[in-house]
User: Which sequence fits this backbone?
């Protein structure tokens, strides 16, 4: 698994590691990717963390060196997972799709905005992205959110959002107003 969210890296935290070196280290220096591979503690799962947050994430990921590193990693491993920032929020995510055999857009109940389905549809219909699949994660039927995956709060930047990675509790009164609609 490669942490490609160079703006708000989270994989290190999820695995209880220090994000001291990673893909950003390799792309901004002569450090070989093999030296930044970390063992996750799980069988058959190695990690390349995002590394220190660079001032120019898009530029790093869009350079030819990244393409070379990905080619070498794919030759070494059977399966390579890219953990990318949310598409539509940062410029380089859509470009990273070209390196993938299959793309997954993960929606989380209670956090992903319903309108993000339009982003997914546009990627397929107008953006030319193929092999795109949606995953509905963290589904709780008993929460009373209606017929699906929330009512448009919580994921992204800008209005009507709380940013990504932050765990935000929706106040009881907002949940109650939402049910009245």
Assistant:
């Amino acid at each position: 698994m490669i942490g490609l969210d160079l703006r708000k890296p989270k994989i290190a935290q999820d695995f209880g590691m220090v994000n001291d070196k990673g893909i950003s280290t390799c792309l901004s220096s002569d450090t070989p990717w093999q030296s930044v591979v970390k063992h996750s503690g799980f069988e058959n799962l190695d990690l390349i963390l995002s590394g220190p947050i660079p001032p120019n994430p898009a530029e790093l990921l869009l350079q030819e060196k990244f393409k070379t590193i990905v080619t070498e990693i794919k030759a070494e491993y059977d399966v390579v997972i890219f953990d990318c920032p949310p598409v539509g929020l940062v410029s380089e995510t859509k470009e990273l799709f070209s390196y993938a055999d299959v793309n997954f857009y993960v929606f989380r109940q209670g956090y992903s905005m319903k309108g993000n389905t339009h982003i997914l549809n546009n990627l397929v219909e107008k953006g030319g992205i193929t092999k795109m699949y949606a995953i509905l994660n963290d589904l709780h039927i008993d929460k009373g959110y209606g017929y699906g995956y929330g009512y448009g709060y919580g994921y992204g930047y800008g209005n009507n959002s709380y940013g990504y990675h932050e765990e935000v509790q929706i106040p009881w009164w907002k949940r109650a107003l939402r049910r009245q609609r």
